[in-house]
Amino acid sequence: MSHAAKRFCQDCSPTHQLNHASEKTLGIIQDVLENSVQRIVPKRIDAVLQKVIMGGIFRIMKVTHLLKLQPFSEKLHIHQRTRVVEEEARTRGMDIQAYTFFGQVTNMFVLNTGTSKHEFEGLPGIDPIQTTQDIDDKEAAKKICSDLGVPVPQGQSFSRLKDAVAFAERVGYPVITKPRRGSLSAHTTVNIKNEEELRKGFTCAKQISTSVIVEQYIEGKLYRATTVGPKLIACGHRKPPTMTGDGTRTVRELFAESDNERKQLLLSLGYTLSEIPELSPDRMSVSQDTVLSAGETIPLVWKINLAFGARVIDVTRSVHPDNVALFEKIAKALQEFPTIGIDFIAPDISASWKEQRCGVIELNSLPSIDLHHPPIVTGEFHNIAAALLDYVIPRLTTQRKMRYTNNVN
Fold first, then answer.
1. pLDDT tens, 67-102?
2. Among candidates 303, 312, 306, which has minimal Cα distance to 263?
3. Could you state, in order of their start, the residue ranges of all structural domains in the chain?
4. Paired strand residues for 69
């Protein structure tokens, strides 16, 4: 399919196209299964059963060669977060291979350290068959943070619009709406100021989810704090793509220049033209014929996603000690995850969370650590890939030895 023929839903993240039926159906099945299992099977037994079942399926697929290992190459369509780990591993004399399924690359890999091999999903240390807490579920993440005393915007999930409206009126506008499951701000609406806007935002989120999160809108900057083990390694200010006026060129001309820069960056990261969503100046709040004054800056789009041209500015050294402690509190409570991406909104990361209206809005168990790596990040570089390998390899080796010892005994 040509680049011109491929269309994207403007409310989705770049990876979603116009048909949302499969995603919504998958969500319904997942909800039904989770609710049924929770009523019938104790949580601990459920985790063991899922591990046994998934492990069995994984082994069968390998034995029958439905899953095949393939060396890394530029031709393989692999997420940049895994690529930065592969690059770091290669500098250490290690090797990472990707599992393919009927010739299509999966998110499963094998790390060969030279003395041992470890399978992982997306990032080293993430067991492809081990069931863990679902911190990517926005409602579950909110409860985890609340139980820890971490500030979160007040919110709930709803399946009916009238309940969502009643909640918004109780906590007060502005609010935001977003699907309970999902990522990259897909079908998310922010800064909703009244019931009519809430109705539109709720309907938008409902296109891909049976449940919609409605929560208070927090004014501020979006930060991504990434932990490895119990420690904060890096924090970046995630900024939407912008254009800056020079007093002579129109919005149309500035947009074209900024959009071209976005596409060149994405192409350098391995995207293909057919995977890069088209942005339109028609959706901006100003006319295309407007001439921006020199130094005047406006966003191209509100979504802060890489594929839409977002940028990350490193602010690690500016994070207030209280905020560092807050992020590390989350990491220590969720030690089963080797790395966590924490999305945090606050007016100023250099001020304590105790002294400003702020909150954690999402947790990510498979974070895009490449956000902290060049060429995406600007400013100081903190090597998350190196920190992750330093953290997980000794633990993976220890776990392997323990399994071997138990099998012998």
1. 899 998 877 888 899 999 999 999 999 999 999 988
2. 306
3. 41-131, 241-301
4. 99
